[in-house]
Amino acid sequence: MATVRKRRTIKTPSRKVTRKSANKHKKKVNITGNKIIRDNWDKNATLRQNYARLGLLPSLNGVTGGIEVKDEEELMENEQKSLEELAESLTEQQGIIQRDDAGNIINVIVGKARTKEQIAEFMERDIEPVKAKTDVVRALEAQAANVLKVERYQSEGEVVWAAKLVEKYGDDYEKMFWDRKLNPNQQTAAQLKKRIQSLLA
């Protein structure tokens, strides 16, 4: 007579460990998204290897392990450059603490107070685009540039509603927020400001 465990495996044969079920986690990635990436995907390489070959990043948070460091001096230089760029964007209430491998503090970078003109100049500064390193990235950038932009058209009712609010309260979006009749959806002051500026632009 069969044991309880034996009977259970006979009832549910899917619980048996076979080569097919053991290799399920080794299933290859099937790219179904972007056509450019799909055409250039190497099914024999790993996801990280494919991304590196295509000139893409598998993660925005950087490398957490599993990759051999090629040149430590080059990495240190890049880290120092990114620290200097980050230090420029700090406000007076922010700072960066640099530590060594043992956890001891090496350097403390504190942000400086800025005038309104300096902040406005910093915000208006043009960010230099990074040149594409591979043909795949160039093709993806060209594809992204040719995307049809869908414009949202406002109805007459929305424009009339925004005009009534502006006529009654002017630029006081806080008072608009508390008006239950003209603001029945209870939109916040920031939401009202954004909508009214886009409608009356």
Characterization of the model:
The chain is mainly alpha-helical and 201 residues long. 47% of the residues lie in helices and 5% in strands. It contains ten helices and two strands, in the order H-H-H-H-H-E-E-H-H-H-H-H. It has a two-stranded antiparallel ribbon. The longest helix is centred in the middle third of the chain and has 17 residues. The chain is extended. The relative contact order is 0.06. The mean pLDDT is 79.
Structural topology:
Blueprint: H1 4-11, H2 19-22, H3 35-40, H4 47-54, H5 72-88, E1 95-99, E2 105-110, H6 116-124, H7 135-145, H8 156-169, H9 173-178, H10 189-199
Antiparallel strand pairs: 1-2
